[in-house]
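Lecture 7 notes. Example A: sequence first, then its structure tokens.
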Amino acid sequence: MSAETGAEISVVICVYTEDRWEDILAAVSSVRAQSLTARETLLVVDHNPTLLERLTKEYGEAGDVRVLANAGPRGLSAGRNTGIGAARGDIVAFLDDDAVAERDWLRYFAEGFEDPRVLAVGGRTLPAWASGGRPAWFPEEFDWVVGCTYRGLPRGRVRVRNVLGGNASFRRTAFDAAGGFATGIGRDGDKRPLGCEETEFCIRLTRAVPDAVLLIDDRSVIHHRVPAARERFGYFRTRTYAEGLSKALVARSVGASKGLESERRYTTRVLPSGVARGLRDAVLGRPGGAGRAGAIVAGVLTATGGYVVGSVRARRGGAAFSAGPIGDVDGRAGDVRSTGGEGAAA
């Protein structure tokens, strides 16, 4: 419990594959080692009975860890909604299953909630490259490709449009106001590298609660493992294209004005500076400069292509997702509040 806020924090970790067994154990251990003790850790297993049984055996006698089956459709959004419904804390924090949190991660989250207007606090996610270091061609401006904080985000504790889902926390009342994460938009294991479900949710949240404050505090640090397969340009290209598809769905749901507000600054200011920096490094003979500049250009083009394709699909077939139900402690689906507004999902 936070002495300052009196709030208790539940940590939700969504898991889906036994291939990440050691990562899952490390993630749970990092929560247990926090300087501010979590009320509980919830492991939500995404339609994998073998992993569910194995984790239940591992933590069955532990009072601080609960293992649950995803009560909704396959995918990260429904898994998060299951965790939200089962959580007992006043604040619900999310940690990726292949990440470890630094010792004061939850303490800095709790400090942000001292202000009653704050409904969400996100943190800083650093890449842990499988190869031991950043590939020379990989631009920091695109670290979101591997689920990490990228160059261009503000530093310190600052107000933002949306937090990043793998390292974030919300008041429970945020879900009472805005419903759950949208299903059909986020990840489904490694099969569909979409994203943006937290962006769409945060925009819905601030529409439902116009005076809500959402923060990022870069002292709340986690380290996110980046496997070798995600250090390759093929994955970079696939993920940026999928981001374009996802942004089209977000724009369809909440309108392009809010859905692309931050992205306009990113593409008109941050990325051109990154290209210039890469070209300058190339002229100075520094390794990877030309590659980074080229990757930024390629990333913009593939994301734009994905956005165009996604927009056409959305116009033809309507929004392909909806705000997911919040499952209760027993795994039953509860209702979510409808959030109207421009382009809201049906």
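Example B, a different protein, same format:
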Amino acid sequence: MSEPTPPRRLRLIIEADDFDDAVRYFRDVLGMPEQAAFATTGDDRVAILHAGLATLEIASPAHARAIDEVEGAPPTAGPTLRIAIEVDDTQAALDASTADGRPLIAPAVETPFRSLNGRVQGPAGWQVTFFQELETLEERSARDGFATDDERP
């Protein structure tokens, strides 16, 4: 069996009842530039927004609860739809979001994994966590407790 080819891009699709609100928030409040996209007519609408480099984070329920605890966010029942967006300034992103009327779920807090995280309620039921890295991936990887899943005991 040959090695799989890594994907070129991750596209996360958010179905939003209030399309205009969701587009305005991610495009205008968070600054994600819009790319050309195809849709037909009427209510068939789509906006593809450039969100920078993407990673897919898969968390066990226990880890999701641990993140809630670290970020000071209330625990949620069952799987939660959450987007984590790396920003240059977590507090500025939280301020822009709350000024836009998004409820604050958890204020900015420095995490044990050396990032500054804060969370708001975004459009269409999605929670949005903003994170600002306080050290490089190389620095983090050298510390105890950081490894890939296949390296863990």
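Note on Example B: DSSP finds four helices and six strands in the chain. The domain at 57-151 is CATH 3.30.720.110 (Signal recognition particle alu RNA binding heterodimer, srp9/1).
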